[in-house]
Amino acid sequence: MPYMTPIVLIVFNRPDTTRQVFDIVRKMRPLQLFVIADGARKDKEGEADLCKEVRDIVSQVDWSCQLSTDFSEENMGLRNRITSGLNNVFKSVDRAVILEDDIIADDCFFKFCEELLDYYENDKRRMSIGGGNFQFGQSPMPYSYYFSNVMHCWGWARWKRAWELDDPSMPFWQELKADGWLENILPDPYERQHWTACFDAVHNGTLNSWAYQWTYSIWRQNALSIIPSVNLASNIGFGEGATHTIGKKSILENIPRKTLNFPLEHPSHMVRNFTADSSYIRAMFKPHRSFKW
After folding, report:
1. pLDDT of residue 232
2. In the β-sheet with 66-71, what is the strand arrangement from edge to edge?
């Protein structure tokens, strides 16, 4: 049976991981597929050939599907390419499930996203649905998912009404930082230090990331993200060829995927799960832990 929700695939220059992710997409047989691709960097020898190979892979749609390709001939950079590409996607659809070229999702991830896109369609307090769970078994969940302050983008879904609230310029950041705004959102000083540095770097253009600007947009709206009770998506792209997930081995690399039971059990209260977020904070932001994203 074809998958009804539009799927967006974001690719660049990695044929090996792209082929694995595209096999997952092919298995789902979406009725509508958007592919966003950045152009090769002129100073990277051989990258143009890799980009062409990737584009050939994602063009091999052998099921009934409306394929829309957004292939840039120039290199726009990660932040501008994803932002502009999703702007184009949400001009024509009101929701989408998004995968990057190094994210392997469990089959139930797609059903999970589709059901919750329906369930919270008109609830503006929910702005993002993630596929990753970085609890490592520390916080067992009584429900199928929880509400979090953290937006996980390694496999995610979103509504047009939420994406329209994103602003790459991160308006009012300097003013809000000076007013101590983050102290009300992030009581943990190490986490607050991390996010302040990230927001500063994105705002001044030294960090090429779209995800941090999106987190900022969610927090400005006093909204929350949805996180599954078990991990539904794994990042296989650590190491050579990655943009951010480079360097030494990370506990976030290729986290094992699990399966959710259906029908979903919805949380009894629409509030942030502080216990789950606290365990994530302890793992990620204490000074003796360091991870490359």
Report:
1. 96
2. 66-71, 32-37, 7-11, 95-100, 156-159, 126-130, 224-228, 145-148
pLDDT in tens, 168-209: 889 999 999 999 999 988 888 888 888 999 999 999 989 888
C-alpha 269/C-alpha 147 separation (Å) is 9
Domain boundaries, the chain: 1-101, 108-235+262-293
Mean pLDDT within 58-65: 96
Cβ count near 139 (within 10 Å): 16
Q: Write down the pLDDT at residue 288.
A: 42
User: Are 260 and 230 within 8 A, CB to CB?
Assistant: yes
- For residue 150, pLDDT over 80 is answered with yes
CB neighbours (10 Å) of residue 62?
7
Which CATH architecture does the domain made up of 1-101 adopt? 3-Layer(aba) Sandwich (3.40)
